[in-house]
Structures are given as structure tokens and as C-alpha cells.
């Protein structure tokens, strides 16, 4: 499969094309399969052909493509010498934001790949795995469920009989 972006034409981009670092993430909209996460791409984008990337995945049906830009630089040639300048200043706020994004990406990966899960959720049409600590921290309902002596605390199983598995996955994605 190939992913193609359609850039907005600009005279500036011809004289000073963007140099970008980014990651592609392709996930099944149902969340049933592990997402594909590309290696970090670093590419000088000069023409329409530079906006095409092959993705090694076998997803069929609906899927979601996320493009996460890690850096965006303006590339220029001055007297035969190439240079690039980031348009995103690096400061403490941005570093904290990048750290937070990385943490959120790790939490999302824990959910998507069922890494060290400790609770099973049975919804209409399927079963999902999650983490008690994350659910408790994100939702007062789940916190109460695991804090008090309820059946879910002892069995590590939650039955949600009035929610489709896709809706439940959307709820979990929001909580994570």
C-alpha cells in the first residue's frame, strides 16, 4: 500500500522546500489488529513524487492513517552550501510536550497490543483487554469498581452488556 499526501502548491516551497521528519501509523478502525508504525522518515519534499510513502501492511477495509511530524525545517541552498533551519523552536515547553506525546503513544500502544493487561472486558460482539490502573485513574466509575469489593475487583472481568465492542474500544482509546 502507498500513502500519498497532496501538498498545497507554493512558490516558497520550490525555493525553500521543507525537510520533514515524521512517523506514519496505520491502524484498523475496529482496533482488532496491531497497528503498523513506520520507522522515522526524514525527507526533503521538492515535488509531488516526494509525498508518496510505501507502507508494509495488509489491512483491508477501513483504516486510520496518522502522520506525526517530529520536525519541520526549511531547506535552502546559499551559494552552493545547503542548510536547514527548524521552524519549531526547541525549548522546555516543546520538550515537555514531546515527552507527553511519547508517553501517550506508549499508553496507546499498551492498549492496542494488549501489553501486560490485567482486566478483560466482555462487550457485545467481542472481548477487549485493558489495565486496571489506567482505567481507575481515567474514570471515577472504573475507580469505584476496582476500589470497592465488587465482583469486577475480584474476577478482573467486566461485563458490559449494552455496548458494542467497537464503541467500547472507542471509550478505552479515549481513556488511554
From TrEMBL:
<dbReference type="InterPro" id="IPR044714">
    <property type="entry name" value="AtSIBP1-like"/>
</dbReference>
<protein>
    <recommendedName>
        <fullName>BTB domain-containing protein</fullName>
    </recommendedName>
</protein>
<dbReference type="InterPro" id="IPR011333">
    <property type="entry name" value="SKP1/BTB/POZ_sf"/>
</dbReference>
<comment type="pathway">
    <text>Protein modification; protein ubiquitination.</text>
</comment>
<feature type="domain" description="BTB">
    <location>
        <begin position="117"/>
        <end position="176"/>
    </location>
</feature>
<dbReference type="InterPro" id="IPR000210">
    <property type="entry name" value="BTB/POZ_dom"/>
</dbReference>
<dbReference type="Pfam" id="PF00651">
    <property type="entry name" value="BTB"/>
</dbReference>
Amino acid at each position: 500500500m502507498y500513502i500519498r499526501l497532496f501538498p498545497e502548491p507554493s512558490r516558497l516551497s520550490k525555493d525553500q522546500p521543507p525537510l520533514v521528519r515524521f512517523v506514519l501509523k496505520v491502524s484498523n478502525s475496529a482496533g482488532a489488529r496491531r497497528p503498523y508504525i513506520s520507522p522515522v522518515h526524514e525527507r526533503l519534499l521538492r515535488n509531488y513524487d516526494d509525498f508518496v510513502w510505501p507502507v508494509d501492511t495488509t489491512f483491508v477495509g477501513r483504516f486510520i492513517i496518522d502522520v506525526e511530524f517530529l520536525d519541520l525545517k526549511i531547506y535552502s541552498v546559499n551559494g552552493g552550501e545547503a542548510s536547514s533551519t527548524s521552524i519549531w523552536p526547541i525549548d522546555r515547553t516543546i520538550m515537555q510536550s514531546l515527552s507527553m506525546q511519547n508517553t501517550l503513544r506508549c499508553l496507546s500502544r499498551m492498549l492496542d497490543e494488549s501489553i501486560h493487561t490485567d482486566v478483560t472486558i466482555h462487550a457485545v460482539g467481542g472481548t477487549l483487554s485493558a489495565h486496571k490502573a489506567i482505567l481507575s485513574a481515567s474514570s471515577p466509575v472504573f475507580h469505584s469498581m476496582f476500589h470497592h469489593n465488587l465482583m469486577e475487583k475480584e474476577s478482573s472481568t467486566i461485563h458490559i452488556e449494552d455496548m458494542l465492542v467497537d464503541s467500547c474500544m472507542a471509550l478505552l482509546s479515549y481513556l488511554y
